[in-house]
Design goal:
five-stranded parallel β-sheet; 58% helix; 5% strand; globular
Length: 746
Amino acid sequence: MRGHEHSTNANELSGTVHGFVVQAGSVHGGIHVSGAGAREEVPPPWQLPPSVRITDRADELRALEAHRGRATEDGHPTLAAVSGLGGVGKTAVALAWLHTLRPHFPGGQLYADLGAQAPDGPADPGEVVARFLRALGVPSGQVPPALGERVALYRSLTAGRELVVLLDDAATAAQVRPLLPAGRCVTAVTSRRRMPGLSLDGGHVIHLEPLSTDAAVELLDATLADGRVAAQPDEARALVLLCAGLPLAVRIAGARLAARPRQRITAMVQALSEEHERLEALAIEGDHDVRAALDLSYQGLPPTAARLYRLLGLHPGREFGAPVARTLLGEDAVEALDALHDANLLVDVAEASGGERYRFHDLVRLHAAALAAQDEGGDERAVALLRIGHHYLANAGRAEEVIEPGRASLEREFGRGVEPESIAEEGIGPVDGQTAADAALDWLERELPNLMAVVRHARPMGAPELAWQVTDALWPLFPRRGLYREWVEAHREGLLAAEEEGNGEATCRMLTSGALGRLETGDHAEGLAMFERAAASFQERGDALGHARTLNYRGLAHQRLGQQDRAADHFARAAAELPVLGDLRAGALARFNLADIALAQGRYEIAAVEAEAARLTLEAAGDPYNAARAAGLTGRACVALGRLDRAEAELSAALSALRAETAGFEAAHVLGGLARLSERRGQRRQARQYYREAVSLYESVCRSESAEAVGAKARLDALEPPEAESSPSAPPGPEPSGDDRGEAGA
């Protein structure tokens, strides 16, 4: 199998490991993401988009504030839902209210677009709450994998915090509920649908009607700000009536007029009247007035801006950066984007997302997509979609190289009509003291909705190779940021695409990488089945090395299924075959896994021998992280064997190396070994200190429920001194030695 191969220790890659390392844990756990032990203080998040001018919404704002006052007086959180037609100004009203609350809510502001109208479906609540957790200071590696655990942590963090949350464009009340904070926070929800279900959660529901004629005229006057409304009041009223009082339609019409300072409002009224009649049959949920205004604005665009508008309508995601536009249109895209923004056809979301980024209102996106279908030929649309897909593939590949520079990935081929030099580069460089790898991971995570949209659309658009190529490029992100749902989904789609193409190499990669995600989510049986399929495929293709590597994968799956003997058999075969086939490092990892099983089974001499052999090979292969893990395992075996001096040397060296790698989970294992060593030497106070630190590390990487963490906590509780001993006046008592056999596998 060409390119990188996974090592025989679940999440390890063969070759030199650089930077942040993700591993599948000692043999008894799932895949663990190592992280720092202490959570750093982060400033409050201020994520709300900027507010815009609103008119005639004083009653609604008073109602929202009155509801907040009642909730505060009763000691309850504040929840309000704002519903109405598309373009009626729901988000603008919510923002106008929430921005006034900033002085009273120093805990910050959280914002999420829930994507009820998104082309790829509404946002997943688990993904949104994970973003909220990271914004509140939870390191990515410490975000729990399960939705219930994420929600519990989110509510724990917000229980004593004063913050506001805006959940924009919600699809259902069920989508909203996991995102509601605890404590006396304020949450606003916007939706096209009325959401009476939120009343059960203490919510106050208000429905926005279109603006009155006078208020709409006032908004038009504020948009133009040149006296034409005062000079032509009847024409202004006629114009806003054609806009049906929808603020979005009024602003679009006003933007078109503002770009033509010499044009009378009468001309716009006449043009909009004609468009209104032409589009009457195309009305959807009462938004034909917006469509008419959009058509007129589109007709007034320069040709390059009009073409960019159509092409961006094909974009599979909701939000995009300026580089995507440059990939589609070249350098002409810069002025074209300005023209679209000036015409109120694009919303600038830079403050919410960072960087130069835009999005369409959902009605505008539908309008642009309809024009693309109407005015762009099939070949032109296909090439534009390929350019968008390869834009994300190329930049994801750049990020992948930064994060894992030693990784040889699957071959990346550019599609028909797409030249590599035409792809604009995204800004993935570090800012504000970030490492280059962290910045690249942040870019991948920010663009993940778009990257996943490319994966989902690849086969329907006739480019199945994009599905597995993008999935392969995303590999460094999934385990490091705990994005398990996307991990499984992307590899499922990538596997279908690779099989559809008949690409055996890509099929095996999707099987093995995807199976590791299954192990992480606890679907061990499915993971084993996928590894077995990969093994059969390698064997059929005559790839002995690929087949040998699956031995270790299958061993890990058997181990998680509690089949220790079968796991040991697979590890032993891998340890024997891999070095012969040229992969010494993978063979060493197989020996490490054998040592770990032996340690858990009380066969300490075998554990020490296998772990030491693994360490020597891993050091020679330039893998200090796994060499340190092997040294820690050797040290724990030596404690059980009574070789205390050697145990101390091995464990101390391992702890130093693992701390340098910020490998919290593995460092906690080593601390447990040092605690046992201290017990053997009769140093109870020192043992308690090690156990406390180990328990803290397990908690910091969300592994407090693991068997290792539970064992360390039990030992700590057993060693806690009685109350008399902890008194300053009590004389120190003798410190009996402990027996290490009970925690040999910790």
